[in-house]
Design goal:
Elements (H helix, E strand, L loop, with lengths): L4 E5 L4 H12 L5 E4 L5 H15 L6 E4 L2 E4 L3 H8 L5
Amino acid sequence: MSEQIYVYGLSTCPWCRRAKQFFIDHDVPFDFVDIDLLPDDEADRVAAEARELSGARSFPVVRIGDQVISGYNPQRYATILGIQVR
């Protein structure tokens, strides 16, 4: 599995926590940012980046390689990664 995974989320968002937990539970390495914990200027920049990628204002935004998934969608994550959902 060579796809780079990045999760844009909010620390208070239960769906964002579930998305991160999906990758942890399936032993899939990923990077993430909780936008609400960033300094204001950086938070604005990263939130704009997530909106541009997803075309939406919802979280989480998950980038797997060049594919972007807006919202919590474990089946789609698994399909893209070629893994079985437990």
